[in-house]
Design brief:
single chain, 118 residues, alpha+beta, three-stranded mixed sheet, two-stranded antiparallel sheet, 5 strands, extended
Length: 118
């Protein structure tokens, strides 16, 4: 599909740290952030937030602090039971993989998070 894009188009691969979104993706750096394939500019900087580290830190704190407070106030089981988004972030409990894609990729048995939240 890349070849059907207009020349000069830009794609930004925000998943490059996890292997990338596009077949033509390869990690770049802040000092050399782009390259062109089939006339399409690729921006694939690993750790994009590092370019604005102070701002990124404030933004990350702004969205994660509420989760830390919920865990501190309720305990991890009640906090995860009350918030499906927080529960979706759980990967491992007591050596058990609670995230299906991770279990599949690593060849481990998957156990749903709900099994541990009861």
């Amino acid at each position: 599909m890349l070849s059907t894009m207009q020349h000069g188009s830009v794609i930004a691969d925000v998943e490059i740290d996890q292997g990338g979104c596009f077949e033509t993706s390869k990690a770049t750096t802040h000092s050399d952030p782009t390259y062109v394939v089939d006339g399409v500019v690729h921006y694939c900087v690993a750790n994009m937030p590092g370019g604005v580290a102070r701002t990124s830190t404030y933004a990350l704190n702004g969205v994660t602090l509420q989760h830390a407070i919920a865990i501190a106030d309720k305990g991890w089981k009640k906090a995860l039971s009350a918030d499906p988004h927080l529960k979706n972030g759980l990967n491992v409990v007591g050596g058990n993989i609670t995230y299906q894609a991770v279990a599949n990729d690593l060849g481990y048995e998957y156990k749903p998070a709900d099994d541990f939240l009861g």
